Amino acid sequence: MRPLRTLLAGLGFLSLLSACGGDGASPSPEPTIATPQPAADYEALAYTTIPRPIALDTPAGTPPFPVVVWIHGGSWVSGSRDIFPGHPALRLRDRGYAVVTIDYRLVPEAFFPAQEHDCKAAVRWLRANAERYGLDRDRIAAWGASAGGPLAALLGTSGGVASLEDPAQGHAGESSRVQAVVDWFGPTDYRLVGADQQLAAALLLGCPVSVCPDKAALASAVIHVDGGDPPFLIQHGTADTVVPIEHSERLHGELLAAGARSTLTRLEGAGHATVEFLAAENLARIDAFLDAELRGR
After folding, report:
1. Per annotation, catalytic residue among 189, 229, 240, 247
2. In the annotation, is 117 catalytic?
3. 80 included as an active-site residue
4. Is 163 a catalytic residue?
5. Which CATH number fits domain 4-295: 3.30.450.20, 3.40.50.300, 3.40.50.1820, 3.90.1150.10?
6. How far apart are CA 208 and CA 289, in angstroms?
7. What is the pLDDT of residues 106-152, one digit of tens each?
8. Cβ-count burial of 207 within 10 angstroms (0-12 exposed, 13-18 middle, 19+ buried)?
9. What average pLDDT does this structure show over 241-250?
């Protein structure tokens, strides 16, 4: 079974769906055999005074367009908003969605919660600028993979958690809530982090989980779940040895128990960021979910 990044490298691309720690327990840099380039018609925009760029691509048609925000992986130490033509999120442009890819602060420049502050600032910016760019401010979804998965999940579960917002980043009067979440194989409960995952967790938090349990809890999407959370589509490989599927099962169970809507897709035999996630059948599941939640409302 070829890892997703290996498949895309063979096509001349660099995968942004890097594992939280690569194929093993400790983080590894992104491969350097190819460099992703933003789509030619993307517009790079700063969404906060830090600043952090986003890339915004709108489809042909009549606005306002529902929005999908892609949050990259990279073990919190690498990756960027740049995506390659044919990326699984970018393809949504051809289905009538505005696609936004965002940068967020990486380690060691900043530790959690800076990464979530940046993601929430991006959503607030999108709402504040929705009319200007033809966006539907009431139909925004977050989709994150690997290290981006918990950031997307937190956008879904932590609405109203003041410590995960930084009003100084701008547009404090706008909501950072999203209306749907797609979570690809992300860690969601740092109480479940085993010895082989300790380094990746400590990288994000800036301290071992055992030393800063309160910070680990703040970073765990499961801690913040309530019945008002948006619908989730969670996808995880049953053979993932980087982020055990138990993370996704726990989040799925907590959402259902709280009265929120959640669907968990267990991809049999799939590992962490392996090619099964790009199968046409699986991408069709994501299309159907987003259509139902962002177009059917």
Report:
1. 240
2. no
3. no
4. no
5. 3.40.50.1820
6. 36
7. 999 999 999 999 999 999 999 999 999 999 999 999 999 999 999 99
8. middle
9. 95
